[in-house]
Amino acid sequence: MQIAPFTAEIAPRLERLFPENRPIPTRLWAILDGIIQGRILVDDPDHPTVALVQDLVEGATYLGGAITAPALRDAFAIARRYQEIVVCLWFDAPLASLLPAGPDYEGVAIDFSDRSPAVDLDRLAALPAGYRMQRIDEQTVPAMEGFEYYVTMFGSVERAIRNMIGYCLMHGETVVCEAVAAPLTRGVAEMGIDTAEGYRQKGLATAACAYVIRECEALGYRAFWNAAQQNVASVALARRLGFRTEQPFTVLAWSATHQPATQHGAAPDTPPA
Fold it and tell me: What's the confidence (pLDDT) of residue 259?
């Protein structure tokens, strides 16, 4: 297995190796479409039969092709030099038996892939007095603590802003909540939310997310939500926003070999606080 640069030529060769029905498909799609950055490992760049595609932000790792245990061991050894590996599988997926033994984390996460139009986003998006929504742009980025997450995802501030639907919830001149749909890929908008500690449990995350989802849907995107099962607040927020199709899955993580193990939040969920 070897690292291969992303090119327009390799993308369709990789595409056919990955089935559509898999957990958290948005990151894989966005990498293959050249929207966000990723790490690609293949057995043969010109004629790949096995591939590992990895999200550079949280290590979400997609495995495709004629996978064998030796190929996975080789690919994992290479990928773990750079960052942790997070593999998400439907329960009882045959691939689980081929993965390296002894993951550093094992848990469950949930994909929320369908939202009921009966839930009134206008009502949920109503803001308390003294708060306002401001679109994320180059002027607001310096005031945001977590935007480096998206710079890593897209490769630059400019690319991030151009390829997201994002708003800051402002209290005066203070950013108290950030709601972002990114990446936007194949008609799907992956949601992320981060609320400042002193402003939590006030309904602000609900309002900010409803505001962004409303704009996503107006532009023709279907909102997508992912949460670790133990993240009770995120799961409850998804349901409050009207997400109704819930698909739980197994999350396995192997820490990077170049640094101590990090705390695992399971699958891609929200930007760091």
Answer: 59
Provide the CATH number for the domain around residue 169. 3.40.630.30
Q: Say if residues 82 and 61 touch (Cβ distance below 8 Å).
A: no
CB atoms within 10 A of CB 253: 24
CA distances from 8 to 45, 159, 164 (A): 12, 18, 22
Instruction: Report the alpha-carbon angle 56-159-215, nearest 5.
Output: 100
Q: Please, are residues 253 and 263 in contact by the beta-carbon 8 Å criterion?
A: no
pLDDT of residue 44: 94
In whole angstroms, give the CA distance from residue 117 to residue 103.
Answer: 39
At residue 20, the pLDDT reads 77
Provide the domain count of the chain.
2
Of 169, 178, 168, nearest to 127 by C-alpha is: 169
DSSP readout, 80-145?
A: TTTS-EEEEE-TT-GGGGGSPS--SEEEEEEEE--B-TTS-HHHHTPPPTTEEEEE--TTTGGG-T
Q: How far apart are CA 273 and CA 268, in angstroms?
A: 14
Residue ending a domain, among 86, 108, 130, is 108
Which contiguous run of DSSP H or E holds residue 269?
none
Q: Residue 84 and residue 132: Cα distance in Å, rounded?
A: 37
With a cut of 70, which residues of the chain have pLDDT below it?
Answer: 259-273
Residue 73 lies in a domain: yes
Q: Is the dihedral of CA 77, 78, 79, 80 positive or negative?
A: positive
